[in-house]
Amino acid sequence: MRPRLPAATDIPGQDPRARLAVYGVPMVNAPALELRGLWRKFGDKIAVSGIDLVVPAGSFYGLVGPNGAGKTTTLSMATGLLQPDFGTVLVHGQDLWADPVAVKGMLGVLPDGVRLFDRLTGQQLITYAGLLQGLDRETVATRATDLLAALDLRADADKLVVEYSAGMTKKVALACALVHAPRLLVLDEPFEAVDPVSAANIRDILASYVRSGGTVIVSSHVMDLVQRMCDHVAVIAAGHVLAAGTIDEVRGGSTLEDRFVDLVGGRVSGEGLAWLRTSSV
Ligand SMILES: Nc1ncnc2c1ncn2[C@@H]1O[C@H](COP(=O)(O)OP(=O)(O)OP(=O)(O)O)[C@@H](O)[C@H]1O
């Protein structure tokens, strides 16, 4: 008997590439992540207003924007943590919100400010993350040991995560995001509170991950870091994309920081804080 071909209503997101996936046709060159018309409101506040973004597979993509621009909200919707009000999220061509469980296996996520199971030790937390992703115990044990060493957490492997410093917590959360060797890593402020040596080690790990075919998206407020580390960048403000492309395209001959200030504006002088001048006391 011929297999029943899927009806249009079976096909996630009505995306032509998703349609090919349903028919078993491999999606060559699908972007690692594609956001189409994403919207999200919190009460009356529109946090994200129609974001479109294409992250090429194999890129090291920076997401920058002022405080409250909508970066975390966008990344939460892009990784299955927060349901969009409207819009589509495609991960390697597959509609995330049509089948979150299937698609999440391709993702490694370091969310901003999400609580961890911090009554586990670092080693236990990484092991738990690996087992949840369906790895066998032996593989998880080897990878947990490797990750603890690479992130300089070996000496603290048996300490409870609740007793970790902010930087150590960030590193163990990163280890949890990496343990199943995802195809796409989405990291919200991965370097916040991390010491310079660990940050350099993390940059090396991420660069080698990208060289081996993985895709990384990082949000950061440190323009210099994004300019040195990433090959693409998107500038987001007030819930939409102001500029996106390769670093050179976006900065257009100036530094990324200057370009960012030009695009976003908002520089204020300190004149209004005359009372802060200690010499007048
Ligand atoms: N759970 C929430 N409830 C209400 N408003 C929210 C919520 N989450 C975000 N917002 C609002 O949505 C907007 C975007 O917030 P978001 O955290 O996405 O910005 P961001 O670019 O990540 O900021 P930052 O760089 O400061 O981390 C802000 O105005 C914020 O106050």
- The amount of beta strand, in percent, is 15-25%
Whole-number mean pLDDT: 88
At CATH level 3, the topology of the largest domain is Rossmann fold
| Count of domain modules | 2
**Spatial order of the strands forming the largest sheet:** 6-7-8-3-9-10
Which structural category fits the helices and strands?
A: alpha/beta
How would a textbook summarize the main sheet? 6 strands, mixed
Q: How many angstroms separate the termini?
A: 90 Å
State the share of residues found in helices, binned by percent.
25-40%
CATH class of the largest domain, please?
A: Alpha Beta
H/E element order? HEEEHEEHEHHHEHEHEEHH
Low-confidence stretches: 1-15, 19-26
Bound molecules: adenosine-5'-triphosphate
Q: So, CATH architecture of the largest domain?
A: 3-Layer(aba) Sandwich
Annotated CATH homologous superfamily of the largest domain: P-loop containing nucleotide triphosphate hydrolases
Using only C-alpha atoms, the radius of gyration works out to 21 Å
User: What best-fitting shape do the alpha-carbon axes yield?
Assistant: globular
Treating each run of at least 4 consecutive H or I residues as one helix, how many helices?
A: 10
GO molecular function, one term: ATP binding
Pfam families: ABC_tran (PF00005)
InterPro entries: AAA+_ATPase (IPR003593), ABC_transporter-like_ATP-bd (IPR003439), ABC_transporter_ATP-binding (IPR050763), P-loop_NTPase (IPR027417)
Subcellular location: Cell membrane
